[in-house]
Amino acid sequence: MDRLLRGCHPAVSFSYFALVIACAMFFMHPLCLALSLLGAGCCAAQLVGGRGLRQRIVWLLPMALLAALVNPAFVHQGATILTYFPSGNPLTLESILYGCASGVLLAAVVLWFVCVTDVITSDKVVYLFGRIIPALSLLLSMTLRFVPQFTRRLRTVAQAQRRLGRDTGRGSVRRRLREAMRVFSIVVTWSLESGLIAADSMRGRGYGLPGRTAFALYRLDRRDAAMLLWLGFCGLYLLGGALAGGLAFQYYPLLSAGAVTPLTVSFFAVYGLLCFTPVLVDGASRRLYLTRKGGDHHA
After folding, report:
1. In sequence order, what are the beta bridge partners of 84?
2. What total of structural domains would you count in the chain?
3. Which of 155, 189, 204 represents a domain boundary (last residue)?
4. Tens of pLDDT along 221-259?
5. How far is 224 from 129, CA to CA, in rounded Å?
6. Considering 193, 248, 260, 296, which has the largest number of Cβ atoms within 10 A of its Cβ?
7. Contact (Cβ atoms closer than 8 angstroms) between residue 126 and residue 117
8. Which pLDDT tens digit goes with each residue over 132-151?
C-alpha cells in the first residue's frame, strides 16, 4: 500500500482518488455503492489501521444514518406506499431505499477522503498545482495540514495549561468552560500567527512568481505509467458504461435497473477492480516479496 499510494508519483494518487470519488458520487446503483464502500473501507484500514478506521466509523455511522432518515421524512415520491405520516404525507419504499443509498454514498465518499488526507500531503499538492495555480495550491496545502496541526497544538496547549493548574476537566462547569475558551483562544492565535509567518516566508521566497523553479523529489517510473494507463482504461470504460446505461439504477417512481448482460457484468467487474486496486496491488506486491525472500533464503 505504501508503494502504490504513499510512495507513488503524486499524479497517480491524485488521479486515482479523483476517479474513484467521482464514480462514488455519480454511480447510484446499489452494487456500485457497495463496491465503493467496501473498497474505501479496505483502503482506509490499510492506511490508517483498524483502530483508526474504527474511530472514524464511530462518528460516520450516525452521519450516514441521519442522511438515510432525512430523505423519507422530506421526500414523498414513489409508487410503493407503506404508510402515512400524521401530517398525511406518504412514506414510500422508494424514498427509504434512496435515503439508504444516500447514506452509503456519504459514508463511501468520507472514507475515500480519509484516504486522500493520509496519502496526498501538502507537499504533493504544491508539487501538482504550484506552477499552474500557485495561490490555490498553497491554500489547499494549508487546509490539508490545518486540522491535524490544530489538533496537535490543542493537545500541547491543554497539557501546558494543565501543568499551570488550569485543567479543563476539573472544577465547576463555569470554570471548565472558561479554561477551555482560554485554551481555544491560545491555539487560534497561534494558528493565525503561523499562517501569517508562512505567507510572509512564501512571499519572500518568490512563491508564485513567473519563472520560479521548484525542487521535486518525484519521478514518474514505469510502474507509475502503468498505473496511469490502468486508470485511464477504467475511466474510459466506466464512462462508456454510464453513457450506455449499464450502470444506471432508477429509484423513482419505481425501482428499476438495466438488464443483466455480460457487458453490464463487465462494467461492474471493472468498477470493483478499480475500487480495490490499492488492496489488490499491495497484496500482490507482498506475496511477490515473500516469494523472493523465501527463494533467497533457500538459496
Report:
1. 90
2. 2
3. 204
4. 888 999 999 999 999 999 999 999 999 999 998 899 888
5. 19
6. 248
7. no
8. 776 666 666 666 667 777 78
